[in-house]
Amino acid sequence: MDASKNNDSDLEEKILIAHQNNDGLKLAELYAEAAYNSPNENKACFFMVNAYTLALECKHPDTQSFFQFLKKHARET
Amino acid sequence: MEKTATLNQVCLPIGKANGLPNEHYTCSSVFKEEKDILLFDKWSGLAVSAEISNIGDVVPIHFQGTPLFIVRTKENKVKVFQNTCRHRGMILIDKAKSIEGAIRCPYHSWCYSTDGNLISTPHVGGPGRNLHEAIDRSKLGLTEVRSHVWMGVIWINLSGNAPKFEDSMKELIDRWADFDRPLFHGGKESSFTIEIAANWKLAVENYCESYHLPWVHPGLNSYSKLEDHYHIEYKNKFSGQGTRVYQQLKDKEGNVFPDFSNLKAKWDTAAEYIAVYPNVLLGVHRDHAFAIILIPDGPEKTYEHIHLFYSQDKTPEHLRLKNREQWKLVFDEDIPVVEGMQKGRHAVNFDGGRFSPVMDNPTHCFHFWVANEVQNGRKQK
Question: Going from the N-terminus, what domains does chain B have, and what CATH number goes with each?
Answer without folding.
Answer: 7-38+182-380 (3.90.380.10), 46-150 (2.102.10.10)
